[in-house]
Each structure stands twice: as C-alpha cells, then as structure tokens.
Amino acid sequence: MRRKLAAGNWKMNGTGAALAELAALAESHSAPAADILVCPPATLLSRAAEAARGIAIGGQDCHAKASGAHTGDLSAAMLKDAGASAVILGHSERRADHGETDAQVCAKAEAAMAEGLTAVICIGETLAERETGNTLKVAGTQLAGSVPANATGANTVIAYEPVWAIGTGKVPTLEQIAEVHDFLRAELTARFGAGTADSIRLLYGGSVKPSNAAEIFAVSNVDGALVGGASLKAADFSPIITALEAS
Ligand SMILES: O=C[C@H](O)COP(=O)(O)O
Questions:
Q1: Residue 77 belongs to what H/E stretch?
Q2: What interface predicted TM-score (ipTM) does this complex get?
Q3: Annotated binding-site residue? 164
Q4: What is the pTM of this model?
Q5: Which protein residues touch ligand 1 with a CB less than 6 Å away?
Q6: Which of 14, 17, 127, 147 gets the most CB atoms within 10 Å of its CB?
Q7: For the chain (length 247 residues), average pLDDT per consecutive 10?
Q8: CATH superfamily of the domain spanning 5-246
C-alpha cells in the first residue's frame, strides 16, 4: 500500500517570513496520515528544516555532479546537508527555463539517489502536445528517459504535471488524469515489474486547490499532489492535506 504524499513546491517564492506558514502547517498536522513535503527556495532550506517539525523538506533542483566549478548550482549532498530529504527534478519550468533534457534529469536523479534523497521527477505535456494527441507518447518518453534504472518506491516519486495546467487554474478532466496515471503505472510495471512499480508514488500537479483536491485524490493511481501556488499559505495547503488524508 502506497502512503499518500502531499508535496508543496514554493518555486521562487518566500523569504524568512514565509517560514511562519511552514510552522503553522506543522502545528496543524502533527501526526499526519499522509507524508508531507515542502520544497522552499534553497535559501530557506536550513531554516525550513528547523521549523518543519515532522514535515519533510526538499530542494527544487540539484546538479548531477557532486562538486566542482558550477557557479550557482547545488549538489545533492549540499541539499542533504541543509536538511533536505527529497528534491524536485525536471520540473517543466526548469525544462523550459534551463533547457533540461530527460537525460540530464535522469543524471540528477541518480545523483540525488546516491545521496539518499528521494527524487520527485516531473513529467507532463504541453497544450500543443495534448491537442495533437501526443500526451501519452510524451509522458512515456519523459518517464523512460528521466527515471533511473535503480528507481524504487523509496527513492522515486513521479509527478505528472500537464504544463498547461500549472498556475493557470485549468485542470484536466478526471478521466484525463486517470488515463495518464494508469498509463504511467503500466509503463513502470513493464519496466520495473509489478512489485517496484506498485511502490512508486504518482502525484498529480497543476492548479490543485482546496476546492478540487478531493475529487482529484479519488482518481485511479493518484497517490497525492505536487502543489505550487496553493502550498504557499498554510490556510490553502492544510485543507489539501486533509483531503488527501481522507482519500
Ligand atoms: O510544482 C508544482 C506545479 O508546478 C503546480 O503549480 P500550481 O499548483 O501553482 O499550478
């Protein structure tokens, strides 16, 4: 049985004052029936780890190399040292802004896993790809190229995030979410076998809010959510976590 996961991605939002939201979240969910992960900007990782009290903390990216001349980058070991237990990799914003390829995402995931971090690997189609009927083809290609061969339920989480649903208020139909999540589970089963595939959590991401969370969490093979905007305030993220716990 997969334990549900509510993951928050603060993206490039938040200074020290935002840690009050994390503290409030921890206060409201001291014994959660689902795993909770918050991924703040790297500048807040250490302080977030102190404020989190039971909530896991994650980074939003890491370099594939352990150290070296890579100005501005952070290694998996650095994230771990700052208190992270997970890292988001291959988010569509990084794929778009920094040209990250599936192979690069895979190398980063291998580096994260080698440090004992859980890799939250993001995939998802653009609107043009959906409208041309290529959603599953894109999802399958990204999954195959971005997920390392040593993936397990302990070191890997997959987040399906349609690019057109991120920060737009647009959400796929529940049937569309189910189609992709069922497909991803089948692809993982074909590659890793049922035992491993059944242990890897599949998150949905893209305009998840308190008002739509429960119906999304009822969808086949949805094991939680990767939440952007609605993870910034405890008042928004908390009811999403509660909906997940009840699902
Ligand atoms: O990583 C989170 C996703 O990009 C979703 O963002 P959003 O909830 O603001 O649409």
A1: helix 76-81
A2: 0.99
A3: no
A4: 0.98
A5: 9, 91, 161, 166-167, 205-208, 226-230
A6: 147
A7: 95 97 95 96 97 93 98 98 98 97 98 98 97 98 98 98 94 97 98 97 98 97 98 98 97
A8: Aldolase class I (3.20.20.70)
